[in-house]
Amino acid sequence: MAELTYLQAISDGLRTEMRRDKRVFLIGEDVGVYGGAFKVSAGFQEEFGPWRVIDAPLAETAIVGGATGAAMMGLRPVAEMQFADFISCAWDHLVTIAAKQRWRAGTPVPIVVRLPSGGGFSGGPFHSQNPESSFAHIPGLKCVCPATPEDAKGLLISAIEDPNPVLYFEHKHLYRRIKAEVPEERYTTPLGKARTHREGSDISVITWGAMVYTAEEAAQQLDADGVSVEVIDLRTVMPWDKPAVLESARKTSKVLVLHEDTRTGGFGAEIAATIAEEAFEDLDAPVKRIAAPDTPVPFSPALEKAFIPQVEDVVAGLRELAEY
Amino acid sequence: MAIAREAEPVGSLTEVREAGLDRDDLLGVYRNMLITRGVEERGHILYRQGKIPGSFYTGRGNEAAAVGVATAMTSEDVGTPLHRDMGVHIVRGVEPWRIFANYMGRVDGPARGRDGNVHMADERLGMIAMVSHLPAMLPVATGCALAFRIREEARVAVGWFGEGASARGDAHESMTFAGTRKLPIVFVCDNNQWAYSTPTHFEYATEHVADRAEAYGFEGVVVDGTDVLAVYREARRAIDKARAGGGPTLLECLTLRMEGHAVHDDAFYVPKPMFERWAESDPIESFRTWLRANAELTDSEEDEIAAGVKKLLTSSLERAEESPQPDPATLTDGVYATPEDLDTPHHK
Question: Which of B119, B143, B338 lies closest to A66 in CB terms?
Fold first, then answer.
């Protein structure tokens, strides 16, 4: 096994599929000659040629709509949004056509849209968002949010293999910060199967993406208090692993749902409601949510720190639950 | 001043033969136009009988444009026809009883009751089901053309839109992308002069929609959309060019929407003389006259074709009415595709 950064693992997954399956191609802004804004596809155009690594005009609708058409003709497009935020320009195509075509017309749309998401580097309101909840709400779409390099590769391969439109949220804050061993061979990580990042017995934290590491750090601090915290990494928010979440909730009887997206209508609300509906009798405290406040993502580091849930916020939340 | 080429009408049978249609083909075109109008007329009756839920749209006046373009496509080509393009479904072989079933929301319609009116397509016949967001099918058609280019297949995509839809960014992005990559696609604009109640001068400020093609780096052509042979000839040229690697064409078919936006709309905002003038160039009547003058269409042939179409429509209606309503228990089926869904010729 090689040690890869989260970003290298994404490249590895994409390269693996492009080598294995000539139907797979990449389309996006600056993905070819430049290798992608974050260099995920550096060297790809040299290897696969300009018709499998396609530099598109600055036209997200044409990129996602075009990927949809190409998928209907039997190809397996991977479309890159330069930043997840720009998916707003292609919202119509994902939601109106790609998401509904299977149910409505019987036509599967096997596309992957790669979405560099998340904040923590003063990207401001238009380069930092985590819009997964908006899409998890749309029947017909799948949303993948890997936290580890191993999952980044395995989930990307699963996403490409999946016969549905899959939004693959790759967290920019993890790109070069997280490094771990990744199997060199091809493997898939199933969509809809959560991962226990850390076992514990007193409180469960349900989270995904970069917040897995925030939860981990907070959990370590709670160890000192003698409180054992379990961290469940959802891996995919649609489909989401309801049985694993309910099992953890029933085991620990206290749950904190944590996400980097804003609070109201965030996917954490769905998780909290489900736990309340289906595991109420097993709970010893109300389900707690920690999320970003309901504002756009700020630019200034001082403001951004106040926006993105920090380790100390999670520690405080866990202590509240522990004492309940 | 027009920038697009303004196509001439088709003159003689010889010219038509040169464009690839023999006499039998011409009679087939005539028949398809009659079926197209007949399906919508019968559909309108069904609607008034309360058998069609929701609203009802027709393409009266657009029969030549739809049939002409579709006749120029090969079976390997794909298209994204819209709600004035019933003729495309007819030419490509969708059986009228399935269209009636779709109108009525029955299980045998291509959309199986999950979507209505002309929001349907038979994928096996090379069509992709439209959505209500009208230019939204253009990027999809562009993507089909991209797939053909990537695989180096000699296939062409045809993407339809209206002059109203030409205002949206989807049209611009599609034509930009297709132009830069010289993709094998024909953009067909059904310019029926009214986007619901909005006239053309509030939709675009050029003389023709096709004038824009120049800005995207390909040819724009304006053709009389009531002249099925001229439409066919221009569509055939554009499709052949795309197939040969010559890139896109924007083909604008000028017609008049002879009815309201949908049947609830009496089109009071369209000046009466405009209707009267365009009624004189009714696409079916014009073609019938042409066939009699140039292809020796006889009374008995005409009667035989009309009787055949009438019989087809009557039996189709009967069959559609027998089609079951969808089972509510199936509502949540198929939101997500399964790997077996990819077991189609497209995905091999």
Answer: B143
Whether residues A64 and A159 share a domain: the answer is yes
Supply the pLDDT for residue B347: 66
Between CA A233 and CA A154 the distance in angstroms is 15
DSSP string, B14-29: HHHHHTT--HHHHHHH
- Quick one: which of B346, B293, B295 has its CA closest to B27? B295
Q: Give B112→chain A minimum CA distance, Å.
A: 8
> Per DSSP, which regions of A8-125 are E strands?
24-28, 53-55, 76-80, 112-117
Which chain A positions have a beta carbon within 8 Å of B146's beta carbon?
A: 54, 66, 69-70
Q: Cα(B157)–Cα(B153) distance, rounded to whole angstroms?
A: 11
- Measure the CA–CA gap between A292 and A83, rounded to whole angstroms: 19
CA distance B324 to chain A (A): 18
* Domain end call among A128, A152, A182: A182
Contact B336 A142 (CB under 8 A): yes
Mean pLDDT of chain B: 96
Which residues lie closer than 8 Å to B185 by C-beta, 6 or more apart?
B141, B142, B144, B145, B156, B157, B158, B159, B178, B242, B248
Q: Residue B226 belongs to a domain with what CATH number?
A: 3.40.50.970
pTM over 0.80? The answer is yes
Binary contact (A69, B140; C-beta < 8 A): yes
**B169 within domain boundaries:** yes
CB contact under 8 A, A57 and B119: no
Any catalytic annotation for residue A93? no
Instruction: Yes or no: say if B37 and B63 are a contact pair by the CB < 8 Å rule.
Output: yes
Same domain, A301 and A157: no
For A72, which of B114, B150, B346 is closest by C-beta distance?
Answer: B346
Catalytic residue among A93, A127, A173, A259: A127
Predicted pLDDT of residue B346: 67
Q: What is the DSSP letter of A94?
A: I
Question: Is the ipTM reported for this complex over the cut 0.90?
Answer: yes
Task: Name the domain count of chain B.
Answer: 1
Per DSSP, the three-state class of B216 is: helix
Which amino acid, residue A58? L
- Residue A174 maps to which CATH number? 3.40.50.970
Q: Domain tally for chain A?
A: 2
What's the distance, CA A158 to chain centroid?
A: 13
Domain-terminating residue out of A182, A207, A241? A182
Let me know whether A14 and A156 are in one domain.
yes
C-alpha A94/C-alpha A141 separation (Å) is: 8
Q: Both A177 and A211 in a single domain?
A: no
Cα(A210)–Cα(A104) distance, rounded to whole angstroms?
Answer: 35
Buried b (16+ CB within 10 A) or exposed e, A36-50: bbbebbeebbeebee
Residues 6+ apart with CB under 8 A from B205: none
Are A51 and A169 in the same domain?
A: yes
Model confidence pLDDT, tens digit, residues B104-156: 999 999 999 999 999 999 999 999 999 999 899 999 999 999 999 999 999 99
User: Position B185: which residue type?
Assistant: I
B176 and A59: CB-CB below 8 Å? yes
Residue A73 to residue B149, Cβ atoms within 8 A: no
In sequence order, the 6+-apart residues with CB closer than 8 A to the CB of B177 are A56, A57, A59, A62, A66, B139, B142, B183
